[in-house]
Amino acid sequence: MEKPDKKSSILAAAENLFSELGYEGTSTRQIAKAAGANMSMISYYFGSKEGVFLEIMNKRIESFAAELTSINQYPISPMEKLHKVIEGYTNKILSNISFHKMMHRELSLAQRPEMYCKLKDAMSGNLQVIEKIIHEGIAKGMFRPVDVRMLIATIMGTITSVATMPSKITEGSVLDITIPKDREILTQRLITHLEDLVTTYLTPQK
Known about the structure:
The chain is an all-alpha fold. 79% of the residues lie in helices and 0% in strands.
């Protein structure tokens, strides 16, 4: 059990450091020290710091992919499925904002082409599941015909905007997204807004 536990320790330590210091600010030496491991273990399991980062990202993407697959198989309406997607994605992003900011930076700057391509390819599968849910609703006449990609961009973009620039929402209030209780309030507020938005936008006009 020692080796799998050590690999998990490295991943947990690396995620904390990446979230706190960013990708560039984190070294393999720091990861090894925080995990109580040695440099050779990181090299053995992951090859490099980039390998550690990709492993963390792949686990996150695969976790959400499994959640999406499960949601898509529920015997519920396409609208209920879409609401569950919104709830799941919002909770995942806002529960670790620092890490999401770093991931968003990697995808927006594309400074490391190989990493960028791997992340983009892994995320495209999740996008296809969400598209399938919306197309199902349109095909059944439950949703009005819309630009599906633009709708998904609106949902994901709004969540990212709140996560990376919360002052747009919290300015003038006492809410602080870094405080767990306030973050929960903002998370529920965001979920409610997006669910109302997609319901109003997708419901066919009578």
